[in-house]
Amino acid sequence: MNIRLANNLDINAITDLHCISFTIHDHVPMMLGRNYVKSTYRWLINSNQSYVLVSIIDNEIAGVVAVCDGPFTKPMFIACLPSFIRSILISPNRLFNRLLWNRLFRKAETPEGHKLENLPGFAQMTIGIVDPKHRGKGVFSKLIEETKNQCRTRGSKLLRAGIYKVNNSSRKTFINAGWPELKQLETSDTVFYAAFITDEYYSLFF
Hints:
There is one protein chain. By secondary structure, this protein is an alpha+beta fold. The chain has a single domain, classed as Aminopeptidase (3-Layer(aba) Sandwich). The chain has helices at 11-21, 28-31, 34-46, 73-79, 81-90, 98-104, 111-116, 139-154, 168-176, 202-205; strands at 2-5, 50-57, 60-68, 122-130, 158-164, 190-196. A six-stranded mixed β-sheet has the order 1-2-3-4-5-6, with helices on both faces. The chain is globular.
């Protein structure tokens, strides 16, 4: 298994893996179609605010993790706006999907949580995927460990990952990796786990 930074040549393969791994109920970009998914990965790979790691097994992408150095919803939405507009034009009913808007601009539900998630150096894992045929091989565990190395290099102090509460398998992976849960950031459908790259923010949460 080899883990490396993704590049533009990987975008189609990553998009394909994303689309077979999620339904429209699992992840916001899927509600807007494949082209929008593709545009998000184009931004994640090319923006200086983010990066994408891929795990390679037998010359195939077996897993993907994307991380942003800080709040990313607004800059990514602006960058992907042309794809968003095309998606709405193709299916105008998407514009009235309450779940889409709730998840697209999701944030902490308390003033304390909102303040904490905007701390400098507070990186966020935006997505994690493992190809179904490579699950059970430790792919995701190795990817999330490598994200911590990247965070150190990029000067992040804390890395968080938001997991839907119903996704027990992913939650177990983070718990087993020693990532504590951040109760302050919890929403109605999402829990957050963290890796403290430095100790600077630890006392703010525990």
